C-alpha cells in the first residue's frame, strides 16, 4: 500500500461561499457565474449549510417568485466537516457514515478550505488500495470500469457500473468501452485514450450509451494503473444527467423570465453591454425603452396576482407585436420599493440611423394601449403604459448610464403625462410631442373641415388641350398653414385614418368635377389611392357609393396606385383592381419606374395608364440614362396598349423631347401647379375644355 495521502492533496472542486444574509438570487448568480453545483453558506466565516442545484430547483418550483425564497429555509444544514490534514481514508469513512455527497474541509484555524466531493475522493485512491477496500470500489457513487488498454475490453467493474449501464456482469465482460460511446460522437473514447497516453490521466464530459439505447450524460475520468505488472486503465463514469438538467434549467432561470418568457434583467444587461461595445457603428445609435404599466399596483391589489400575471403576459405580447425580430425585450425585476413582481419592461433597439425613428416605434407600441382590453375571463380593463427613452451613439455610454437615462425619462413621463412617452433628451421629447399633437389633429381633420382638394391639369402633348386633372389633397390647418400630403399621408396610414381621408378626397373631387362636367367640360378625373385603401375590405363598396351619390360617370374616373404599393401584395392587389375595373373605373400606375416591377409582371394588372415618375423627367433631354429609361418605358407602354403621362414637366425642352418620343400627356408646373377648385375652374373656362 502506498503512503497515506491527505485530503489537502486531492481537493479539486472549487470553493464558492456566500454569507447567509445574501439573497437567493445572489447565490443563483454565483452558481451560474462560477459554474459550480454547490455553494457553502457561512455565518461569521463558519459553514452552516450547503446550497446545491437540487435545493435551487426545488425552491424555484415551490415558490411563485424568486423574491419570496429565503436562503436560510432551503439550504441543507446537515453538513459534515473534516480537517484538510486528515487522510483520504478518514474522509471516505466520514462520507459513508454521513450519507452526504460533500464534506466541508477546514484548515487548522477552523476556516473553510474547500469542498470534497465523493468523486474527488474515489478518483484518488490507488488501485491496490482499492483492492484492499473492495467496499469502496462497490460503494463508489460513480461507475468504475477497469479496461485493457490494448483492445479496450472491459476486464472488471463495480456494482454501480451494472446499475448505471443496465448490462449484466457477463454482458459487460464481452463489451469494449467504445461500445458505450454515443453514436453521435464515436471518437470520444479514442480521443480520451490518446490523451491518457500523453498525460497519464484525463477528464472529459461525454454521453454514455446504456443497454436500453438511451444516453446519459457522464463525466469521464481515466487514469492508468499497474496491477501485477500489467498496465490497465481505470475509468470513472460519473452520471451527471441530473446536473446537466439542472444546469440548463438554471441557465433558463437566470436568462429568461419564467412568467413571460422574455429575457431576464440579467440577460438584458449582458446583451446591452455587448451591443454598446460594438465597433464600426459610426453615426448609428442604440435606443433603450423602459416601459412601465400605469397603476399596476392597483390591478394587483384589486384583482389579485393571477390577473396581475395575465396582464404582464398580455403586455409583453402587445409590446412584442411592433418590434423587429432582432430587437431584444426583457422584463425588469421589481426594485425594493415595489411590493409586486416587476411591472417594468425594457426594449433594446439597435442600429438606428436616426434617433427620431424611436418616436415612431414608441408611438406604435403606445397605440396598442390606452384602451380597454379584454382578459381571459371576459373582464375588461383599461390599460395604459408609460415609456422612457434613452438613445446614445455606440460606444458612448455604459449599460448603467443608458438604463438610468431611460429611467429618468420614464419618471418624467409618469409625472407629466401617464400613457405617453418621453426622451431623456429634451429636444427629442419636443419633436415627439409635436408629432403626437399633429397625429391627434390629423384624426379630426375631416370633421374639422381642414382638408382641401387641389387640381393639376394633365395636358395632351399633341394638341396642348387639357384632357385630365389630378386631385391632390392639401391640409390647411387652423393657422392657415398648408401641410404637404407627402408628409401627412404616410402619417395617416400609420395612425389608421387614411381610409377616412381617402374617401373624403374621392367624394369631394367627384362632386366638384361633376359640376364642371355639367358645365360642358370633358376630361378624366384622377384620384390617388393609397395601399391601405386598396387593402381595405370596403373599398369597392365605398367607390361605388361615391360614384352613385355624386352621379359621376365611372368611365371618367381614373384611380392612381403607386407602383410600390402594387408590389407589396400583388395577388391581393390584382384581385381588387379587377373588381374596381368591373365598376367601369380606369386605373393608372403612379410614379412608374421607382418600384422595380418587372415589365412582364405588369401585364397581370388591369392597367390603362402609366405615369412616368418625375425623377426620370427631371434630367431630360440631357442625361443619357434618363433618355434610355424614358424611351424604354414609352416603347413598352405602347406595346402593351397603355396611355402614357409624364409627371413633373417643368420646361419647354422636356416637353419638346417628350413630343418627339410620342408620350401622350404631361402634367407639371410648365402648365400649372396644383390649384384650388376656383382657380381651376377659371383655367378651364379660359381654355374652354
Ligand atoms: P403624386 O400622385 O405623384 O403627385 C404628383 C406630385 O408631384 C404632387 O405633389 C404635385 O404637386 C407634384 N408635381 C406635379 N408637377 C410638378 C412639377 O412640375 N414639379 C414639381 N417639383 N412637382 C410637381 P403633392 O401634391 O405634394 O403630392 C405628393 C404625393 O402625395 C402625391 O404624389 C401622392 O402620392 C400623394 N397624394 C396627394 N394627394 C393624395 C390623396 O388624396 N390620396 C393619396 N393616397 N395620396 C395623395
Ligand atoms: Mg398621383
Ligand atoms: Mg406621381
Q: So how many helices?
A: 29
Strand proportion:
15-25%
> Which stretches of 5+ consecutive residues score pLDDT under 50?
335-341
Please give the number of β-strands: 27
Look at the structure and give the mean pLDDT.
85
CATH topology description of the largest domain:
TIM Barrel
Query: Which ligands are bound?
Result: ligand C2E, magnesium ion
The biggest beta sheet is recorded as: 8 strands, mixed, barrel
List the domain count as a whole number: 4
Overall 3D geometry?
A: elongated
Q: Could you characterize the architecture of this molecule?
A:
This protein has 689 residues and is of the alpha/beta class. It has four domains: 116 residues, CBS-domain (Roll); 118 residues, Beta-Lactamase; 185 residues, Reverse transcriptase/Diguanylate cyclase domain (Alpha-Beta Plaits), CATH 3.30.70; 238 residues, TIM Barrel. The strands form six sheets. The chain has an eight-stranded mixed barrel, surrounded by four helices. Strands 8-7-11-10-9 form a five-stranded antiparallel β-sheet, with helices on both faces. It has a five-stranded mixed β-sheet with strand order 13-14-12-17-18, with helices on both faces. Helix 25 links the parallel strand 24 and strand 25. Helix 14 runs antiparallel to helix 15 and helix 20 runs parallel beside helix 22. One magnesium ion binds next to strand 24.
Amino acid at each position: 500500500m502506498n503512503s497515506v495521502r491527505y485530503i489537502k492533496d486531492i481537493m479539486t472542486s472549487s470553493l464558492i461561499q456566500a454569507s447567509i444574509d445574501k439573497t437567493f438570487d445572489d447565490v443563483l448568480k454565483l452558481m451560474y457565474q462560477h459554474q459550480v453545483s454547490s455553494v457553502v453558506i457561512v455565518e461569521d466565516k463558519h459553514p452552516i449549510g450547503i446550497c446545491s442545484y437540487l435545493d435551487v430547483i426545488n425552491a424555484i418550483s415551490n415558490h411563485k417568485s424568486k423574491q419570496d425564497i429565503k436562503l436560510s429555509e432551503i439550504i441543507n444544514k446537515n453538513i459534515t466537516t473534516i480537517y484538510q490534514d486528515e487522510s483520504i481514508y478518514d474522509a471516505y469513512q466520514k462520507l459513508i457514515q454521513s450519507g452526504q455527497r460533500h464534506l466541508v474541509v477546514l484548515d487548522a484555524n477552523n476556516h473553510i478550505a474547500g469542498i470534497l466531493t465523493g468523486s474527488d475522493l474515489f478518483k484518488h485512491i490507488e488501485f491496490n488500495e482499492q483492492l484492499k477496500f473492495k467496499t469502496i470500489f462497490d460503494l463508489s457513487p460513480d461507475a468504475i470500469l477497469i479496461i485493457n488498454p490494448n483492445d479496450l475490453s472491459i476486464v472488471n467493474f463495480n456494482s454501480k457500473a451494472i446499475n448505471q449501464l443496465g448490462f449484466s456482469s457477463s454482458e459487460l465482460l464481452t463489451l469494449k468501452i467504445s461500445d458505450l460511446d454515443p453514436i453521435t460522437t464515436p471518437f470520444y473514447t479514442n480521443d480520451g485514450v490518446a490523451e491518457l497516453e500523453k498525460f497519464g490521466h484525463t477528464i472529459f464530459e461525454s454521453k454514455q450509451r446504456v443497454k436500453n439505447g438511451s444516453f446519459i450524460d457522464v463525466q469521464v475520468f481515466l487514469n492508468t494503473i499497474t496491477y501485477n505488472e500489467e498496465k490497465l486503465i481505470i475509468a470513472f463514469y460519473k452520471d451527471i444527467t441530473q446536473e446537466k438538467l439542472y444546469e440548463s434549467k438554471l441557465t433558463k432561470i437566470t436568462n429568461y423570465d419564467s412568467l413571460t418568457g422574455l429575457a431576464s434583467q440579467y440577460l438584458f444587461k449582458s446583451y446591452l453591454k455587448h451591443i454598446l461595445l460594438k465597433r464600426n457603428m459610426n453615426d448609428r445609435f442604440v435606443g433603450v425603452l423602459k416601459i412601465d404599466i400605469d397603476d399596476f399596483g392597483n390591478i394587483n391589489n384589486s384583482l389579485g396576482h393571477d390577473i396581475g400575471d395575465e396582464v404582464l403576459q398580455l403586455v409583453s405580447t402587445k409590446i412584442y407585436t411592433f418590434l423587429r425580430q432582432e430587437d431584444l425585450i426583457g422584463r425588469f425585476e421589481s426594485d425594493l420599493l415595489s411590493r409586486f413582481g416587476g411591472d417594468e419592461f425594457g426594449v433594446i433597439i439597435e442600429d438606428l440611423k436616426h434617433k427620431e425613428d424611436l418616436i415612431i416605434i414608441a408611438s406604435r407600441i403606445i397605440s396598442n394601449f390606452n384602451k380597454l382590453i379584454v382578459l381571459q375571463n371576459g373582464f375588461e380593463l383599461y390599460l395604459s403604459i408609460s415609456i422612457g427613452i434613452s438613445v446614445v451613439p455606440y460606444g458612448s455610454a455604459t449599460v448603467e448610464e443608458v438604463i438610468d437615462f431611460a429611467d429618468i425619462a420614464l419618471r418624467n413621463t409618469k409625472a407629466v403625462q401617464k400613457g405617453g412617452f418621453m426622451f431623456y433628451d429634451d429636444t427629442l421629447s419636443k419633436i415627439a410631442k409635436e408629432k403626437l399633437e399633429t397625429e391627434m389633429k390629423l384624426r379630426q381633420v375631416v370633421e374639422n373641415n381642414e382638408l382641401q382638394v387641389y387640381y393639376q391639369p394633365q395636358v395632351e402633348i399633341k394638341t396642348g388641350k387639357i384632357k385630365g386633372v389630378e386631385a391632390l389633397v392639401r391640409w390647411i390647418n387652423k393657422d392657415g398653414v398648408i401641410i404637404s400630403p407627402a408628409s401627412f399621408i404616410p402619417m395617416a396610414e400609420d395612425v389608421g385614418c387614411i381610409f377616412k381621408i381617402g374617401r373624403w378626397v374621392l367624394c369631394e373631387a367627384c362632386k366638384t368635377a361633376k359640376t364642371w362636367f355639367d358645365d360642358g367640360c370633358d376630361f378624366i378625373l384622377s384620384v390617388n389611392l393609397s395601399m391601405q385603401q386598396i387593402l381595405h375590405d370596403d373599398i369597392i363598396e365605398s367607390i361605388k357609393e361615391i360614384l352613385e351619390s355624386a352621379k359621376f360617370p365611372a368611365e371618367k374616373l381614373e384611380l392612381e396606385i403607386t407602383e410600390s404599393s402594387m408590389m407589396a401584395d400583388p395577388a391581393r392587389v390584382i384581385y381588387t383592381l379587377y373588381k374596381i375595373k368591373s365598376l367601369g373605373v380606369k386605373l393608372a400606375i403612379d410614379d412608374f419606374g421607382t418600384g422595380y416591377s418587372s415589365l412582364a409582371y405588369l401585364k397581370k394588372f388591369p392597367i390603362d395608364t402609366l405615369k412616368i415618375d418625375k425623377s426620370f423627367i427631371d434630367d431630360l433631354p440631357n442625361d443619357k440614362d434618363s433618355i434610355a429609361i424614358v424611351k424604354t418605358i414609352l416603347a413598352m407602354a405602347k406595346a402593351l396598349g397603355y396611355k402614357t403621362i409624364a409627371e413633373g414637366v417643368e420646361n419647354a425642352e422636356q416637353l419638346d423631347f417628350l413630343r418627339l418620343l410620342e408620350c401622350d400627356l404631361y402634367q407639371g408646373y410648365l402648365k400649372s401647379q396644383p390649384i384650388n377648385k376656383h382657380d381651376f375652374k377659371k383655367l378651364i373656362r379660359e381654355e374652354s375644355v
